[in-house]
Automatic annotation (TrEMBL):
Example GO BP: cell wall organization
Protein name: UDP-N-acetylmuramoylalanine--D-glutamate ligase
Known function: Cell wall formation. Catalyzes the addition of glutamate to the nucleotide precursor UDP-N-acetylmuramoyl-L-alanine (UMA).
Cellular component GO terms held in the UniProt record: cytoplasm
Upper taxonomic lineage: Bacteria, Pseudomonadati, Bacteroidota, Bacteroidia, Bacteroidales
Positions bound to ATP: 110-116
E.C. numbers: 6.3.2.9
Keyword Iron: no
Cross-referenced NCBIfam families: murD
Gene: murD
Ligase as UniProt keyword: yes
Pfam families: Mur_ligase_C, Mur_ligase_M, MurD_N
Principal subcellular localization: cytoplasm
Keywords: ATP-binding, Cell cycle, Cell division, Cell shape, Cell wall biogenesis/degradation, Cytoplasm, Ligase, Nucleotide-binding, Peptidoglycan synthesis
Length: 445
């Protein structure tokens, strides 16, 4: 065995890891079973990094001293099985990059809300003048930032896949928004395996570290009783129960930390709706733990612009509002979206089903949805569940078909909502591509 680091996957995360390895003087080889994007290929060539694409040289890979694996590669692939059998250590980009920085780590995970919360925390800290980077499952590669920049703080959005490969890495402030079923196809349809991956966010926590969570989440509450992390624990909830750190009462949000009480009118928050109140509360607790002033926090919570593809208002056409929630790749995300709707809805659902249970949204669909449009290669599971629940259901084979059908079915005052509950890989490159196509089609109406 040589002392070469092998990076599997040549996306943003893999290329960043390879650059960091090179900068730190390690021998590194990157391998991708598919073809690399032109920009990634050029970056690797510019840095003089040894790489291959369109297949894996197994013999070379199995000589590695350590493998940095892209979060998208499951452990069940034949190559990953061989790597594990040989006893080669497999880590994530997060674990690898964490070795080379002393910055304070603010890490956010959860089945829903993590992108918005991570973006909001980053916005608050940056607005307050802190030297902060944003990475993980969002924005630029964390490893590449560690290689090329110098930040005192990192705000990292972490998926369960990224957390699987974390061992010595520690979040100084860990935020867990919620745990609902998601990606169960990746976890042998075993909810506990998914929960265990999420709870790795408090791995290595000791006294002085902070853990922030949603007090009303039964799954997280149960896990906390089992794990009993040594960290200081802070919680948020909708209504004041005299136990939570952050809560709402009357028309205000309150955050009580370190003997101080922050308050802000709910209507001044840039993000509206119950799920967004939780995002604002969690972000506000982080801000107060980092001694951000009340004035700076109020300003940042009121002028935040939101996240693309997450309840993003696209346009109003003939009295119908079109909303792009393409980032809703699981059922719980769609539940939040429907819950925040104040009008009748034409809902566009469908894509690659990850073992979804649609019963969670059934009541809201019955109450609010005028028509359903199924956008996917195989809509049989959606039909089996929703046929007979909504009077009008149509299938669409492309985004244009879906938007045209929605235009026809919606009545003045309605909302057309793209909130698919599913991954996008059957018809689109990713959820961004799906959302961008939706926006293009709406703007052409």
């Amino acid at each position: 065995m040589n002392d070469e680091l092998v990076v599997l996957g040549g996306g943003e995360s893999g290329v960043g890891s390879a650059i960091l390895a090179k900068v730190k003087g390690l021998s590194v080889f990157l391998s991708d079973s598919g073809l690399l994007k032109e920009e990634h290929r050029k970056t690797l060539l510019d840095h003089g990094i040894d790489f291959e694409e369109g297949g894996h040289s197994e013999e070379k890979i199995l000589q590695a001293s350590e493998v940095v694996k892209s979060p998208g590669i499951p452990d069940t692939t034949p190559l990953m099985r061989k790597i594990r059998e040989k006893g080669i250590r497999v880590i994530s980009e997060i674990e690898f990059a964490g070795r080379y920085t002393n910055a304070r780590m603010i890490c956010i995970t959860g089945s829903n809300g993590k992108t918005t919360t991570a973006s909001l925390i980053y916005h608050i800290l940056k607005s307050a003048g802190l030297n902060v980077g944003l990475g993980g499952n969002i924005g630029r590669s964390f490893a590449r930032q560690v290689a090329e920049e110098h930040y005192d703080y990192y705000v990292l959005e972490l998926s369960s896949f990224q957390l699987e490969g974390v061992y010595d890495f520690k979040a100084d402030i860990a935020v867990l928004m919620n745990i609902t079923p998601d990606h169960l196809d990746r976890y042998d349809h075993d909810m506990q395996k998914y929960v265990d991956a999420k709870m790795r966010i408090v791995r290595n926590h000791k006294m002085g570290d902070s853990f922030i969570y949603w007090m009303d989440d039964p799954v997280v509450t149960k896990e906390l009783e089992k794990l009993k992390p040594a960290s200081d624990i802070y919680s948020f909830t909708e209504k004041n129960n005299h136990l939570a750190t952050a809560y709402s009462e009357g028309n205000k949000m309150y955050i009580q930390t370190k003997g101080t009480l922050f308050d802000m009118e709910l209507e001044l928050l840039a993000l509206q709706g119950m799920h967004n109140l939780y995002n604002s509360m969690a972000s506000g607790i982080v801000a107060k733990l980092l001694d951000i002033s009340d004035d700076n926090l109020r300003l940042a919570l009121s002028d935040f612009k939101g996240v693309p593809h997450r309840l993003e208002k696209v346009a109003s056409v003939r009295g119908v509002q079109y909303i792009n929630d393409s980032k809703a790749t699981n059922v719980n995300s769609c539940w939040y979206a429907l819950q925040s709707m104040r009008t009748k809805v034409v809902l566009i659902l469908g894509g690659t089903d990850k073992g979804n249970d649609y019963s969670e949204i059934e009541d809201l669909v019955r109450q609010k949805v005028r028509a359903l449009i199924f956008l996917g290669k195989d809509n049989s599971k959606l039909h089996a569940y929703f046929d007979g629940i909504v009077p009008s259901i149509e299938d669409a084979g492309s985004m244009k078909e879906a938007v045209d059908a929605a235009y026809r079915l919606a009545k003045k005052g309605d909302t057309v909502l793209l909130s698919p509950c599913c991954a996008s890989f059957d018809l689109f490159q990713n959820y961004e591509d799906r959302g961008n196509q939706f926006k293009d089609c709406v703007r052409r109406l």
